[in-house]
Amino acid sequence: MNLRLVAAVGVLSALAGCVATAPTVSDKVEMTYDEKPRSAQAQAPAAYPSGPLSPVTTEEVRSRSVTTSQPPADLWERIRRGYAMPNLETDLVRQQEQWYASRPDYIQRMADRSRKYLFHIVEELERRQMPAELALLPFIESAFNPQAVSSARAAGMWQFMPATGKDFDLKQNHFRDDRRDVLQSTRAAMDYLQRLYGMFGDWHLALAAYNWGEGNVKRAIDRNQKAGLGTGYLDLNMPNETRNYVPKLQAVKNIVNTPELFRAELPVIDNHPYFQTVKLARDMDVVTAARLADVNLDDFKALNPQHNRPVILAAGTPEILLPWDNAAVFKRNFDAYSEGKLASWTAWSVPANMSVADAARRVGMTENDLRAVNTIPPRMIIKSGSVLIVPRSGSAQQDVTSQVADNAQLSLAPEIVTRRTVIKAGKRDTVGSIAHRYKLAPAQVAEWNGLSAQAHFKPGQQVVLHLPVRAATRQAVRVPQKGVVRASAKAPVRKAAAPAKKAPAKKR
User: Fold this and answer.
1) Residue 112 has pLDDT above 70, yes or no
2) Distance (Å, rounded) from C-alpha 55 to C-alpha 151?
3) How far apart are the C-alpha atoms of 122 and 84, rounded to whole Å?
4) What are the residues facing 345 on neighbouring strands?
5) DSSP annotation string for 288-344
6) Of all helices (H) and strands (E), which one includes residue 462?
7) Does residue 24 carry a pLDDT above 80?
């Protein structure tokens, strides 16, 4: 009996020890933006059971209260709760705080613009378990303007360069630029940031690489390692833009965290999706889509900024974004639509090099209208294989194929202005020798002079050429050839010139 009693006491002691060392809910460490972790010793002492142990009944479980976690009051609070990057405390941060705080109207405009996109960005960050303050990065990159284009040709809310955009599968063609697409650019930005964090293991260095390029950051780290210096963000020698990049984000993060300290007013942004995706089964004019959704055209473009032309090609963009309550409106109006064709534009592939005027005549447009809708600058010709947006004829109801929608490009070349020029042939000159001398096709020289491509000229015979204006001028100045160049009836007579040698191309 004594042995049984001792064993029982030992078991009860072990159970009591387990209860004593197990943390209670109140023992969990809490972390706020500007607090250090609170010690477990500061919490209420753990409770130990007394008396004999007994199982908990179902009725007791139901009677006991459960602590609930309140959802964030708005999206700003949700972002604050997700802060996870180490804070940066430098003079540059203070300078950026002052810069933003002195421009409350600018903060208000940026914050108002962000309400369309922030919920989706926060959702994506949380899904990937990334720091929530990265949702504020478009404040620094583009002021949340998805149409923003930098002097270096970076585009969109996340400011992707053309080459980097291609690396992350952001299509850029004549009809759309996915660097401006809300969903695609956000996906690509997070893919890129995750990759950079994987490279450097530090969010500040990852952000520096996002701004400056991972190759530059790697080289800066290597230089410091060789010199025995630190390799953190604050240790590296970098351009001023990158040096101020993380301090700008930290400043915005601080303002969002405690706007009252900076006399900033953040608009209320509900913790709720702003937009829905809606499937698009047919090509559709942008204005038609906005009208069917009962959405202001500017608001529609703000959610669907990737379209370069006034038509949405369903094969390339199979869905559009609409404000939450307007998605059902669009579906209802689309099903009831009976006003004719949905798209008044289509794609046309240019069969050969041609001038804008010739292309306009082919498709039944004025030259100015064709230039405007396709963004063709003056003094350019359209190269063969280019794809243009042109009016859809009444009989053409077929939508544009995915091959064209995904790969259409507009290729242009400088327009060559020629001038009729007459020279005198020298001894032993042929159609071929003159064509070679002036870098022309023998067939062209033969056609201009009514001869065969194998014909010989008599010494002193007049030869008609059509030369580029600049080339004609250049050749009229230099003198190696026999004969006379007559640029026109009124032009002064000059000695014929040998063709100028082409200058070597500059290396970039």
Assistant:
1) yes
2) 72
3) 13
4) 391
5) HHHHHHT--HHHHHHHSTTB-SSEE-TTT--EEEEETTHHHHHHHHHHH--SS-S-S
6) strand 462-468
7) no
Burial class (CB in 10 A: 0-12, 13-18, 19+), 354: middle
Amino acid at 131: P
Query: Rounded distance, CA 389 to CA 175, Å?
Result: 8
| Catalytic, out of 59, 60, 123, 141 | 141
Owner of token pair 């870098």: 439
Query: Which residue type occupies 380?
Result: M
Determine phi and psi for 326, rounding to 5 degrees.
-90, -10
Instruction: Determine contact, residues 348/387, Cβ cutoff 8 Å.
Output: yes
Backbone angles phi, psi at 312, to 5 degrees: -105, 120
Comparing CA positions, the residue from 405, 293, 285 lying closest to residue 340 is 285
Query: Which helix (H) or strand (E) element contains residue 219?
Result: helix 214-226
Residue 155, number of CB atoms within 10 A of its CB: 26
Neighbours of 210 (CB within 10 A): 24
Does position 493 have pLDDT exceeding 70, yes or no? no
The number of beta carbons lying within 10 Å of the beta carbon of residue 329 is 15
Query: Counting Cβ atoms within 10 Å, is residue 251 exposed (0-12), middle (13-18) or buried (19+)?
Result: buried
Give the integer Cα–Cα distance in Å for 300 and 367. 29
Size of the chain, expressed as the number of residues it contains: 508
Bridge-based pairing state of the strands 319-323 and 311-312: unpaired
How many CA atoms lie within 13 Å of 284's alpha carbon, on the beta-carbon side?
A: 21
At 280, which amino acid appears?
A: L
Mean pLDDT confidence for 240-265: 96
Q: CA–CA separation, 208 vs 242, rounded Å? A: 6
Residue from 104, 390, 36, 183 nearest 171 by CA: 183
Over 100-168, what HEC string results?
HHCCHHHHHHHHHHHCCCHHHHHHHHHHCCCCHHHHHHHHHHCCCCCCCECCCCCECCCCECHHHHHHC
Long-range contacts of 12-15 (CB under 8 A, 24+ apart): 12/53, 15/53
pLDDT at residue 338, rounded to an integer = 83
pLDDT tens for each residue of 124-176:
999 999 999 999 999 999 999 999 999 999 999 999 999 999 999 999 999 99
Whether 214 is catalytic is: no
Round the average pLDDT of the chain to a whole number and report it: 84
- Give 346-381 as a 3 state SS string: EEEECCCCEEHHHHHHHHCCCHHHHHHHHCCCCCEE
Collect all residues with Cβ–Cβ distance below 8 Å to 311 and sequence separation of at least 6.
175, 283, 284, 285, 286, 343, 344, 345, 346, 389
